[in-house]
Amino acid sequence: MLYYVIDAFTETKFGGNPAGVVIHEDLDEEFMQKFAAEVRFSETAFIKKINSQTFEIKFFTPTSQVELCGHATIASFKALLENKAVENNHTYMMKTLAGTLSVEVNQSFIMMEQAKPKLGKTFNDYEYLADLFNIVKSQIGSADINLVPQAASTGLWDIMLPIKTNEALNALKPDFKALAEFTKVNKVGGVHAFTLDTKEGVAMSRNFCPLYGIDEEAATGTSNGALTYYLFHHNVLNEFNEEYTFLQGYSMDRPSRIITKLVNKNNPLVMVGGNATILTKGKIY
């Protein structure tokens, strides 16, 4: 069995978000979970070939299985490219717990379809949120647009948390134990904090998911996919088939660039993509 370590949403080693990738024929989920706990990446992907066009991919954090993972999908198809299991300028299908989704591979740039976008409840207790993140509540929201904390999903539920300034975003210091309990009670994976106060890209983001053993993540494709739909719903983004750039990981010294795109105007969907670089490759015995 082949095992890769791949940095996703970056073109340089030690940038972006690292993922483990295992290409296998018949591993059981108990092994997958133990292996993910052993290597301790935020997510490890396990790929099984179904046929020349379709791959089953399962995603595990160090503590549990999750339905979908953007950066581990990018990493997976980078590994499949290197292994010559897929080719450039082709579209493939991947079976996940979030559904069967398409993945486009174009000149080593990988763009994945997200699950059907959904918006959930809003969160109006700014005092409690401010305490969770150790900021003043007046920094929650947006300077020019009426944005509110709200659950959103394109495969995984996260709370979109608007922050007024980049300085305030960088200053977030979550109470991870309390945040894990808060997200568990509200049936979401984590909190995706973002600000529109950026000179480059649409938004700068930080993602916190202690419920699944991930205090902070350098690049989260599914969360930025959900953020794209959230911003579309709130009339910040309105162009279809146009690439949007989201920045993440700068607070962790792992700069990441996540590209998203709104498609299918009559029934909007979100695509998420990026580059990846292979750090190492080996075998599992």
UniProtKB/TrEMBL annotation:
EC id: 5.1.-.-
Q: Which Pfam families match?
A: PhzC-PhzF
Gene Ontology cellular-component annotations: cytoplasm
Q: Which residues form the active site?
A: E43
Keyword ATP-binding present in the record's keywords: the answer is: no
Q: Which superkingdom?
A: Bacteria
State the Gene Ontology terms under molecular function. Answer: isomerase activity
Query: Which enzyme type, at the first EC level?
Result: isomerase
The cross-references to SUPFAM superfamilies, in alphabetical order and at most eight, read: Diaminopimelate epimerase-like
The entry's family comment says: Belongs to the PhzF family.
The name this protein goes by in its record:
Putative isomerase yddE
Which organism's genome codes for this protein?
Solibacillus isronensis B3W22
Which lineage ranks, top first, belong to the organism behind this chain? Bacteria, Bacillati, Bacillota, Bacilli, Bacillales
